[in-house]
């Protein structure tokens, strides 16, 4: 087993924590908010209600997919993890090869209803163990290109009828790579702060706003389009700020960063102001030490928060899940073999969860490569993560793979209906 010094091993990740690097992040057109370590970004595709909504939940720090969706039938798994392996008898929704970590119990109702699935052994086409570089590669999703454009920016950009307001930055952060690109952005500290400077209670006749409309409504320049987008955003946020704040359908969110973030996301979706893409970050998955067991540890705490928050979110949405698809991404996985500090080091392949609209659930999807109990043993990638995302893009948005993932030829995964 490898021995690691937690103080040195992930200085990179500590220095670029999502809250510090992307404090607020960027949204394509509706809202971005920071809830501690959880970051929300939102992207309206049009002023009219969006026919499909995508929620991308990034599990930052590289989650241990082997302990979330456990390959209990692979003998190398238990041989390589004498202290932290999840016992086979404790697994949920077991099939002949895989099972869910018991902390994922809040998601079981959605699994049994066919609304949740897992795709294992997914990841980048080549190993990359740097948090920063891997995050950028995953979110850019166009290897070899010198163009600074993320895959979500390209997705929204394919809609010629889209709201000209392309991105909103809350809390003054920088855009995540997935949203970075040619679309214009805005910035604000809070949704409640959004408005036109001077258009306030001291300007009862709205003369400031009227003069701005007179100046910009007929202007077709880039700045003119951005100003008109600002006017539209202000109206959209009036609707959002007036929307109900209480969860629906008896949903109870955990009192956590992720719980509060997904509660806000559900509110945006149910307001139906044209948001098509939202991103949420859950941090602290970099478990080099103290990963733990099914009774204690860092992974257990994170998995409980993840499952409790996502389960509450899906419950809160109710019938809205018929138009909302959730997908999870983590920059890379963990090594097969546990280290001497009771954790796992940076690896390669990982698992992706999909939930909601179009998902052919109640199933584990995997071209399983088998595990090796060795010092440098990785879960190999047999499914490029872009194939999973492509099925969402094609089936839910009707957009070609090439428009969002240039030069990529997807393989059929089968997790999305109609893909």
UniProtKB/TrEMBL annotation:
This is DUF1501 domain-containing protein. Signal peptide: none annotated. It comes from Nocardioides agariphilus.
